[in-house]
Amino acid sequence: MEEQQPIAGMVSREQLQEWVKQRRERTKTVPVQEQKVKMVLFSLAGVWYAFFCSNVREILDISKRTVIFVPGSPHFIAGIINVRGIIQSIIDPYRLLGLAREKENTERHAIIIHHEAFQTGIRVDFIEEVMDIPQSALQPGNEWAINDTLRELVHYAFTYRDRHVAVLDVAKMAQLIQR
């Protein structure tokens, strides 16, 4: 089969294909990997919160552990537990944050959080998910807070599955607890 010759002023098929290939190469978009942060999402009284995973030591199932009340401790300390030979304080976030409790004793998990030398456990109703979110999804969140204590502790907020999530600042929480 003979190759067709281009008519004067027209481009051959091969030339057109080469031009398209070169054009695609010039305009090729390179996907940029957006920086992500790992978060632990949890709920309290039906509201979603999160901690940065960099501030989470571990997540414990405390449903079968005895949280021992310590007389004379601050009102927001639920008690202490033994975690592999280490005595760990457990905070009642409803008391600390001034939240209304929907049901009594719904907390089945504790998130052990840390910042510098500070470490404690926070009781939570449910662990929703451990996930990566794009850094760009984080928005200033303290205007979202429902009370003054939360306004002080909410560092960022983002939307996930059509739910608003408040990211709690562990450093500020440590300051509040140690007052």
Question: Your description of this structure?
Answer:
There is one protein chain. By secondary structure, the protein is α+β, with helices and mostly antiparallel strands. The protein has one domain (36-177): OB fold (Dihydrolipoamide Acetyltransferase, E2P), CATH 2.40.50. Helix content is 19%, strand content 40%. It has 4 helices and 11 strands. The N and C termini lie far apart (89 Å). The model has no long low-confidence stretch (mean pLDDT 86).
Summarize the structure.
The protein is α+β, with helices and mostly antiparallel strands. The chain has helices at 13-27, 93-97, 148-153, 170-177; strands spanning 36-44, 47-52, 56-61, 77-83, 86-91, 109-115, 118-124, 126-134, 139-140, 154-160, 163-168. The N and C termini lie far apart (89 Å).
Kindly name the structural category.
alpha+beta
* Rg, Cα atoms, Å: 27 Å
**Helix/strand order, N-terminal first:** HEEEEEHEEEEHEEH
Sequence stretches where pLDDT stays below 50 over 5 or more residues: none
| CATH hierarchy: architecture | Beta Barrel
List keywords for this structure.
OB fold (Dihydrolipoamide Acetyltransferase, E2P), elongated, 5-stranded mixed beta sheet, 6-stranded mixed beta sheet, 179 residues, alpha+beta
Helix/strand layout:
Blueprint: H1 13-27, E1 36-44, E2 47-52, E3 56-61, E4 77-83, E5 86-91, H2 93-97, E6 109-115, E7 118-124, E8 126-134, E9 139-140, H3 148-153, E10 154-160, E11 163-168, H4 170-177
Parallel strand pairs: 2-11, 5-7
Antiparallel strand pairs: 1-2, 1-8, 3-6, 4-5, 6-7, 9-10, 10-11
